[in-house]
Write a structure and sequence with these properties.
Strand order of the largest sheet: 2-1-3-6-7
Shape: globular
CATH superfamily of the largest domain: Flavodoxin domain
CATH architecture of the largest domain: 3-Layer(aba) Sandwich
Number of strands: 7
Order of helices and strands: EHEHHEEEHHEHEHHHHHHHH
Largest sheet: 5 strands, parallel
Oligomer: single chain
């Protein structure tokens, strides 16, 4: 009699939304696999809802890959698993600090070495740069990325931004008279159970190369070309500001708070005032660089690191 496959699920969530996505996608596999859940816990927790200045002050170290430490894992780093599911959120177009801390840790590297990994994201709509960073960490750990599932808020970009900021700073997720609920929509979370079947199949066949094409068929990753251009500009700005702010000290340092406040103000101006101007340049790029952007869309929907 064959042993049941063993799945390790590694996740960090502040609001519980990502755990709900994990349970919906992976839960249906309980009848055929043993599932171990490992919640990442920062040594110094990130408070939720966020204080605004603390939230923006978290950006530099997130983008620079200098995360706050996490507690030791409960799972034995030498334990055998047939599949690892890494569930995470992007922060500032980068993997969340607890996720980065895990991927950088010796325990994490030992756990991931030689393992097939599925990444599972719950986010607003911008995740490309974060996933590229995660791909690099996984490759360095000797892991094999075999699948990627991205659950996004499908509201218009600025609407999603307003609702997620309301959620982050006030803890209010529910819909209002003018705004939809924040985060990934409930109907989309419920529908994500469809991704369990291809995972079930490859756990039996071990034909890992077949997984991502099947997930793509089920619309596990949907990506519009304009978001690529939006992220290109965003990550460049974050990298500049992260270095500029961190040059004045570490997280919470009084000496850097003036620069954090400057960044806060310019970020909001950039989003709400300059976005229409940026949209014009994006339209030109979409018109004249169609082939290149189409190739980039296909690349980001895949699992390989360029």
């Amino acid at each position: 009699m064959n042993e049941r496959p063993k799945i390790l699920v590694i996740y960090y969530t502040q609001t519980g939304q990502l755990k709900r996505i994990v349970d919906t996608v992976i839960g249906p596999l309980q009848d055929m696999a043993d599932i171990v859940y490992e919640e990442l816990k920062p040594v110094q927790p990130f408070a939720f809802p966020w204080k605004k200045q603390t939230f923006y002050d978290t950006m530099p170290e997130t983008v620079l890959g200098r995360p706050r430490a996490i507690q030791a894992l409960n799972v034995d780093p030498n334990a055998h698993f047939d599949l690892v599911v890494l569930a995470y959120q992007p922060w500032f177009l980068s993997p969340s600090q607890p996720t980065a801390a895990f991927l950088q840790s010796e325990q994490g590297k030992r756990l991931l070495n030689g393992k097939p990994v599925i990444t599972l994201m719950g986010c607003r709509n911008m995740w490309l740069s974060a996933q590229e960073t995660v791909k690099g960490y996984l490759q360095a750990a000797g892991a094999h990325l075999v699948g990627n599932i991205v659950m996004v808020d499908k509201s218009p970009n600025l609407v999603a931004l307003i609702t997620v900021l309301r959620w982050q700073f006030k803890g209010k997720k529910e819909a209002t008279a003018l705004l939809p609920p924040a985060g990934v929509q409930e109907a989309d979370i419920v529908a994500s159970a469809r991704f369990a079947n291809p995972i079930r199949k490859v756990l039996t066949t071990r034909s890992w190369d077949a997984l991502q094409p099947e997930l793509i068929e089920l619309k596990a990753v949907e990506l519009l070309a304009p978001l690529i251009l939006l992220e290109d500009r965003g990550i460049s700005a974050f990298r500049y500001w992260s270095k500029f702010i961190s040059a004045k000290g570490g997280p919470g340092a009084p000496e850097r708070q003036g620069r954090v406040s400057m960044y806060r103000g310019l970020l909001l101006i950039g989003i709400f005032v300059l976005s229409p101007i940026s949209k014009i340049s994006s339209l030109l790029k979409l018109t004249f660089n169609k082939k290149e952007l189409a190739e980039r869309v296909e690349y980001y929907k895949g699992i390989h690191l360029s």
